TrEMBL record:
Gene3D superfamilies: 2-enoyl-CoA Hydratase, Chain A, domain 1. It comes from Pseudonocardia yuanmonensis. This is Enoyl-CoA hydratase. It comes from the Bacteria. It holds the Pfam family ECH_1. The lineage of its organism: Bacteria, Bacillati, Actinomycetota, Actinomycetes, Pseudonocardiales. InterPro entries: ClpP/crotonase-like_dom_sf, Enoyl-CoA_hydra/iso.
Amino acid sequence: MTDTTVDAGLETVLAERRGGVLVLTLNRPHRLNAWTNALEQRYFALLDEAEADPDVRAVVVTGAGRGFCAGADMDDLDVLTGSEEKGLPARAVPCHRPLQLRKPLIAAVNGAAAGLGFVQALYCDLRFATPTAKFTSAFTRRGLIAEYGSAWLLPRIVGHARATDLLLSARVVHGTEALEMGLVDRVVEPDALLDTTVAYAQDLADNCSPAAMAAVKAQLAHAATSTFAEAAGEADRRMVLSFEHPDFHEGVVSYQEKRPPAFAGLGPDRS
């Protein structure tokens, strides 16, 4: 079982506000931030709070210590291998909850992102990483399949052939190679990783319409399984709505007046 003695009194995910950016830090450094039910519940609850808070414009997720997330805690997997019940663990919230966040979610991958940690990085909109950060699906080396929708998501990020390589071999890819294949979007030296990621997120928070960013995220999700004609039709529908939104007026006027825009926080989803 998981070492509850070490975890006792430990906040499994830390939350820190930096301006309009919420920084979430997976906080089990003694286990390279390996995933547990408690960590999942805390992480998803904080995403729910970020969703509901109009002052949070973007979210950055990283890991404490040397790792981002080393995957599911192997001690918890021991329980599964010895159990007669082989179904998936019951979840109150789907594992892909981060994909449903309407606000930008950016991963600052500071170390190992393996298995479920690898998938959680894929669930982010963008990934910044250090040159030595390690990415691996790990699944086939544990006798497992491509879990949690990774076989759908990874080809859309790196292409079919590269996704096949990463999922079949479960080999380790470091940050530099990950950048070359499009798995990460920027490589940053370790001492600057979090500040660089937060600065990018803060630029979104300061200068981009939360409503427009939410709409773009919805368009990207819709377009992943639609034809071009359907995507273009969806864009036309949303364009009419955007012309009527106060953010369009503010975006134009702030540009004309050469000042930063003052966009409102994200309201309820009415798309």
